[in-house]
């Protein structure tokens, strides 16, 4: 534990400053597939009763028409965030006709690639842009990979906390630059230590055998329909999940915000020969938005992202460059198939303590060797994190995962205690103790619990459908209040009106709109 870490803890622990940590903001985005009663991918359109996937602030679609995404507001208390998420689930279940929300991250048995429906967003220019972007993703990575679901955890520290730390350090740069630099430092520490999250919360050690479409692999056969790795924690985050040769050279090590935004700007503006060969259009029909390494900056797959709320019509990268980092988005969390929401308050409390540790702990720049070690450690844990006596690389030396995990939890205990002081309870320390038990006993991890279920004779898909139906019963057993239901109904109706208004007032042709959209990234200085 560094002196700087101790000093920051002491500063935030002062009576005058302690209330700041109760002002952190938390938001959750949860993706899940719609399936029919047999656990097959729903081929029905996005239910109109849920509103417009283009304009609804809480209920949208991700890649496929069948891949729902629920978005909570940002709240100071993660318990409220989870309650918001639960309300969304209850409303959606009130509108699903004989369909279910798939409980794990890895998808159900999927139909052939052509049959998987791409999400549609109507005839407006922005709606068409979203659809063509997804056509491009299908072309580049296949539709199967795009059906993987996850949980994104959005987290920010209060804006008033940063000037306090900046003054204490005698840092004289602009306040906005200091805040951005500190969020980027948090991200560097996240890269160093996120293997721990995969061990503790990874929940995808197995998948439906059809997912691999006959591709070669190193997985083992659990039964006729299920593939797995015996010590895996998260096959979703392994090289079986999100992979791209085009993105292989894109490894921002987050040493400052400028280098991060520069690397993404370059990728969005640099042609990639295999995509150039395909072209953007064929016979006048759009195939992909462009032939560059990335069509848009959000195509870059990363475990964590620096974020800033965008203005209307603004690109994420423009918002970051104009106003700096506002919060971070953790993107590597599996959906826990044993939990109705896929995440619970214990996990959220631990994440807060972990992320605060990443923010306050010293975070030197990542050199090439350490950058590679971070990636290697992460990939090792997702594929064999529960292997007895597994070793990782730390400061160029092998270290036992168990020993390093306990050492990290000792440090995170300091931030958990600080959060408990701020909130006047022991919730964060309790959440940490539950994680410590998983380090000592790997059978307590979600990934081990999933395999324990499957080893009793159920296939992955049978287990997942059983969990999905249990969760459906849970959500349907307690309906929303009349007022809550009315609020959701109104939001759905409003979103449909907003989409219709957007389409009615659209001017010009889509090709000009797409060209202007691409030019907006070039105008940033490439």
Automatic annotation (TrEMBL):
Name the EC number(s): 6.3.2.2
GO CC annotation: cytosol
Q: InterPro entries of this UniProt entry?
A: Gln_synth/guanido_kin_cat_dom, Glu_cys_ligase, Glut_cys_ligase
Q: Does the keyword Aminoacyl-tRNA synthetase apply?
A: no
The pathway to which it is assigned is: Sulfur metabolism; glutathione biosynthesis; glutathione from L-cysteine and L-glutamate: step 1/2
Q: Please name one Pfam family that this protein belongs to.
A: Glu_cys_ligase
Catalytic reaction equation(s): L-cysteine + L-glutamate + ATP = gamma-L-glutamyl-L-cysteine + ADP + phosphate + H(+)
Q: What class of enzyme is it?
A: ligase
Record keywords, A-Z: ATP-binding, Glutathione biosynthesis, Ligase, Nucleotide-binding
The cross-references to Gene3D superfamilies, in alphabetical order and at most eight, read:
3.30.590.20
Which GO MF terms does the UniProt record name? ATP binding; glutamate-cysteine ligase activity; metal ion binding
Q: Which GO terms describe its biological process?
A: glutathione biosynthetic process
Q: Which SUPFAM superfamilies match?
A: Glutamine synthetase/guanido kinase (SSF55931)
Q: The Glutamate--cysteine ligase domain covers which part of the protein?
A: 10-381
Family membership, please give it: Belongs to the glutamate--cysteine ligase type 1 family. Type 1 subfamily.
**PANTHER family from the UniProt entry:** GLUTAMATE--CYSTEINE LIGASE (PTHR38761:SF1)
Protein name, UniProt field: Glutamate--cysteine ligase
Organism of origin: Pseudomonas borbori
Q: Which gene encodes it?
A: gshA
């Amino acid at each position: 534990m560094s002196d700087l870490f101790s000093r920051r803890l002491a500063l935030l622990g002062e009576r005058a400053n302690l209330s700041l940590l109760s002002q952190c903001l938390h938001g959750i985005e949860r993706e899940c597939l719609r399936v029919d009663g047999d656990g097959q991918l729903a081929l029905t359109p996005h239910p109109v009763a849920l509103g417009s996937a283009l304009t609804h602030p809480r209920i949208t679609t991700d890649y496929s028409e069948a891949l729902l995404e629920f978005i909570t507001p940002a709240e100071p208390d993660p318990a409220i965030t989870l309650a918001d998420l639960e309300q969304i689930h209850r409303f959606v279940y009130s509108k699903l006709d004989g369909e279910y929300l798939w409980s794990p991250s890895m998808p159900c048995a999927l139909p052939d690639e052509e049959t998987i429906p791409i999400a549609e967003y109507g005839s407006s220019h922005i709606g068409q842009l979203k659809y063509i972007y997804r056509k491009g993703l299908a072309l580049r990575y296949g539709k199967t990979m795009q059906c993987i679901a996850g949980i994104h955890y959005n987290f920010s520290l209060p804006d008033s906390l940063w000037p306090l730390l900046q003054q204490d350090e005698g840092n004289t740069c602009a306040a906005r630059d200091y805040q951005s630099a500190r969020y980027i430092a948090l991200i560097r520490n996240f890269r160093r230590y996120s293997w721990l999250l995969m061990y503790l919360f990874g929940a995808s050690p197995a998948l439906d055998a059809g997912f691999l479409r006959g591709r070669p692999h190193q997985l083992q056969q659990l039964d006729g329909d299920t593939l797995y790795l015996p010590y895996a924690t998260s096959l979703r985050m392994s090289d079986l999940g999100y992979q791209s040769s085009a993105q292989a050279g894109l490894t921002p090590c987050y040493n400052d915000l400028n280098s991060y935004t520069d690397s993404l700007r370059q990728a969005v503006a640099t042609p990639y020969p295999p995509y150039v060969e395909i072209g953007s259009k064929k016979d006048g029909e759009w195939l992909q938005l462009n032939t560059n390494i990335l069509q848009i900056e959000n195509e870059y797959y990363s475990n964590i992202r620096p974020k800033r709320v965008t203005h209307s019509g603004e690109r994420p990268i423009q918002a970051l460059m104009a106003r700096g980092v506002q919060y971070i988005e953790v993107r590597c969390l599996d959906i826990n198939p044993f939990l109705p929401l896929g995440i619970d308050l214990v996990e959220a409390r631990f994440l807060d303590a972990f992320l605060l540790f990443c923010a306050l702990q010293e975070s030197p720049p990542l050199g090439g060797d350490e950058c590679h070690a971070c990636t290697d450690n992460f990939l090792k844990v997702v594929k064999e994190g529960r292997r007895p006596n597994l070793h990782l690389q730390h400061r160029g030396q092998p270290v036992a995962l168990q020993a390093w995990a306990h050492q990290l939890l000792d440090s995170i205990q300091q931030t958990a205690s600080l959060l408990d002081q701020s909130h006047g309870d022991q919730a964060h320390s309790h959440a940490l103790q539950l994680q410590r038990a998983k380090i000592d006993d790997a059978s307590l991890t979600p990934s081990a619990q999933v395999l324990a279920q499957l080893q009793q004779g159920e296939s992955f898909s049978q287990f997942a459908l059983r969990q999905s139906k249990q969760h459906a019963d849970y959500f349907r057993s307690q309906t929303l209040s009349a007022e809550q239901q009315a609020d959701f109904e109104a939001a759905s109706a409003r979103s449909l009106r907003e989409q219709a208004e957007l389409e009615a007032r659209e001017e010009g042709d889509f090709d000009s709109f797409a060209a202007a959209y691409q030019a907006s990234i070039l105008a940033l200085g490439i």
